[in-house]
Amino acid sequence: MSEIESWKRLAALTPARIALGRAGSGLPTSETLRFALAHARARDAVHAALDTDMLGREIGRLGLQVLRVQSRAPTRDSYLLRPDLGRRLQPADREAIAAAATNPVDLSITIADGLSASAIQAHALPVLRSLLDHVRSAGWRLGPIVLATQGRVALADEIGELQRARLALILLGERPGLSTPDSLGLYLTYAPRPGRQDGERNCISNVHDAGLPAVEAAARAAWLIREAFARSLTGVALKDESSARSAGAIRSGSGCGDGEQPPG
């Protein structure tokens, strides 16, 4: 097998940009255009607006109460330039969540645009539907679903505390990459409250059509929630062993932090 054929075989196994060929001293025009298109899609995903009306209607059809909130970032530009604003709620939204929290709950679920509204539009509902099966089977008390715009990971800490939840889960659009502009991440935090650190969370990342399927992400999240309740913690002290316990049915994803993205 020639070296060129070896590279082509490798290229068929990964979306990474390898074995692109050459045109003189540069890349072929077709590959240059593909790169520009991927970059444009990633940029568009960052600036796209989340359709909260559609998402709210679909969640309502699942029999769930929905609350809509916004972080303290008033615009997309401020959200990108001031990450701290994306981690706190508007005062009026704090009051609305607190007023709706009539009883303590086991699980608080927030769905936020993060850095890719496209990821939320494509994958949040499939993950939520699958997760609800686990929630109902386990008998966990669920608070109103919170739809947040201009939100970052730690926004769920404040929401979870206001809902008096044992654990906060946020579904968030991850930073778009050149191969995946619509990847969704799930972050779990036990005993949520403002000031929690990334090391106190668990993350399930790379939920998209070519990555971790929604049903597997939901199963993995349910396993982590059960273990978090049993051990009263999340984060680095809680290792994900769901893959071993499901005979390899649930694949392992990358860890991630407050940047709403896998590392690297």
What can you see in these coordinates?
- The protein starts with a helix and ends in a 19-residue tail after the last helix.
- It has a 6-stranded mixed β-sheet, sandwiched between helices.
- Helix 6 crosses helix 8.
- The longest helix is centred in the middle third of the chain and has 22 residues, at 117-138.
- The protein is built from 9 helices and 6 strands; from the N terminus they run αααβααβαβαβββαα.
- The protein has one domain: Rossmann fold.
- The radius of gyration is 20 Å and the shape is globular.
- It has 264 residues and is α/β, with parallel strands linked by helices.
Blueprint of the fold:
Blueprint: H1 3-11, H2 29-47, H3 52-60, E1 66-70, H4 76-81, H5 91-100, E2 105-112, H6 117-138, E3 145-149, H7 155-162, E4 165-173, E5 184-190, E6 201-207, H8 214-231, H9 242-245
Parallel strand pairs: 1-3, 2-3, 2-4
Antiparallel strand pairs: 4-5, 5-6
Helix pairs in contact: 6-8
Do you know the CATH architecture? 3-Layer(aba) Sandwich
CATH fold name, please?
A: Rossmann fold
The total beta strand count reads 6
Largest sheet: 6 strands, mixed
Number of helices: 9
The first-level CATH class is given as Alpha Beta
Total number of domains: 1
Helix content: 25-40%
Mean pLDDT: 89
Structural class: alpha/beta
- How far apart, in Å, are the first and last alpha carbons? 33 Å
